[in-house]
Amino acid sequence: MERLGKVGEWNDDRGFGFIAPLDGEPARVFFHVRDYRLEGRRPEVGEMVKFTAQRQPDGKWRARAVRRAVPAARHAKPFMRATDAPRTASPLAGAGAVTLYALFLAWAIRSDRLPFEAVFVVLGVSAITFVVYALDKHAAQTGRWRTPESTLHLLELAGGWPGAWIAQRTLRHKSRKPGYRAAFWAMVALHASALIAWCWTRP
Prior knowledge:
It is built from four helices and five strands. The chain is α+β, with helices and mostly antiparallel strands. It folds into two domains: 67 residues, CATH 2.40.50.140; 126 residues, no CATH class.
């Protein structure tokens, strides 16, 4: 029998959470991201969901066929243009940052402030970062162990942020979380600052 509840806890990195049934029995029901039937989005704390509950061999309850109980209103989209603006500006900002980064590297190499091999380092770290992003998205879709966000940020800080930006745009991964996006741009700024300081102090 389908029941109604609210998502009370959700761990996005590990892909599981708990639903609080409105009838109060039991107090909370475990569910996994693989049980969440809504393509293109992740569960959110506080959202109302419909689900069926099954008792497991260990006596605990698990939710199956979890789906959002209140679909988004179709007429709401035209009134969300103000919130959509940052998403349309983000590709331009990212593309501009990558272009400026490439031009700076070219200038630094031409003026002997960086060795030519720096290009391969940037390309290599960016490629690794892109692959890690892809693996993390696959893990999120299949409910496997996720890559910690701190690891992704360290790769971005090490110079892989262009690959991270490309992954965000092409894979649509980690591109909608404001907190993550703010940390991403902070890594970009820190990496750029360190690189500029290094080149500036070179004879």
